[in-house]
Design goal:
5-stranded mixed beta sheet, alpha+beta, flat, single chain, 7-stranded mixed beta sheet, 320 residues, 6 helices
Length: 320
């Protein structure tokens, strides 16, 4: 091959850069179904917030003319409920050698900050579902722990549309969405378009809340949000990489005083960047600076009627 002045391409390559390194890192870990953007934020200026739920309401009786009406005292409230903020943080060093020699140090800092933020968000998203303070006192309780026996159904097999309807009725007045793993969402689609089970109840539309053209699946007029953060579980709904079962959550969003599911935050958490970002110019004993991300938050459940959990679901064809 004639390459002009040079003997061959090997000689030519000694004088030119034949490979270009793109700035940044190509996104490879892409996950959908995040809860954080959907949750209303409830700001508090203390370590925790305490509230009560209704337990026994007053009732009335009928009385005849001239009959004495007794005084009553039978109203009760639930045990005290406390939502305690927890701290989640991560800090990484910015090595001065790289900062001083990198062609564009701003790109280096931006790349580190971007991946720090994404990593911390992924941790919070996981704990919004699977957080358990009985396992680690430093983390907040997620959806699984916030549901008790009266707020859950053990499916013990393929997802039943009857149980899904029951769960919708349990969330008062109506759930905002159904959080479901992609494995089960695909089963819902198959039940509609392939098996033809109750096609009138499961509707897939071309234009939904997420935007024109994006697929949205609904069940009984409640949108289904498929989530990568609902993963393989054991029969009790605990995440388990060796598990073969899945969970579905139905929730109504709202502030604590409205009885809904919300995210309690403190300090500067919940702003435009969500995290409080701290820049450290010099680290002691290191030729480096640093970036620290900190958030104070916890998942809050106002009323027990705003959340329902179906667990121990097999990845199998939907049944009526």
């Amino acid at each position: 091959m004639i390459v002009g002045h040079w003997k061959d391409l090997t000689e030519l390559s000694k004088l030119v850069q034949d490979k270009l390194l793109l700035a940044g890192v190509i996104e490879e870990i892409v996950e959908e179904g995040q809860l954080l953007p959907k949750l209303p934020v409830f700001s508090i200026d203390t370590k925790s917030i305490i509230y009560y739920r209704e337990k026994t309401l007053p009732s009335a009786n009928f009385y005849g003319i001239g009959e004495q009406i007794p005084w009553s005292a039978d109203v009760e409230y639930s045990d005290q409920v406390e939502c305690t903020l927890k701290r989640i943080a991560r800090q990484d060093a910015l090595d001065n050698f790289v900062m001083k020699t990198y062609r564009n140090p701003n790109d280096y800092r931006a790349m580190v900050l971007s991946q720090l933020r994404k990593g911390c968000m992924r941790t919070i998203e996981n704990k919004l579902i699977y957080g358990d303070s009985s396992v680690d006192i430093k983390e907040f309780n997620g959806l699984r722990v916030l549901t008790d026996a009266n707020m859950s159904t053990d499916q013990n097999g393929a997802l039943s549309l009857a149980n899904l309807r029951l769960a919708i009725d349990k969330v008062k007045p109506k759930p905002d969405f159904i959080l479901m793993p992609f494995e089960l969402q695909r089963r819902m689609d198959a039940a509609t378009w392939e098996a033809g089970i109750n096609a009138g109840a499961i509707i897939r539309v071309a234009a939904g809340p997420q935007g024109l053209g994006e697929r949205v699946t609904w069940f009984e007029n409640v949108p289904i949000v498929p989530s990568d953060y609902l993963v393989k579980e054991n029969a009790d709904g605990k995440e388990d990489t060796a598990g073969t079962r899945y969970s579905v959550y139905l929730m109504r969003l709202g502030q604590i005083q409205q009885g809904g599911v919300s995210l309690a935050v403190g300090g500067e958490t919940g702003g435009p960047d969500f995290f409080h970002i701290v820049e450290l110019d010099e680290l002691e004993d290191y030729d480096a600076g640093g970036i620290r991300l900190v958030a104070y938050c916890a998942l809050a459940l106002g009323s027990t009627k705003s959340l329902y959990h179906i667990h121990n679901i097999a990845d199998a064809a939907i049944v009526a």
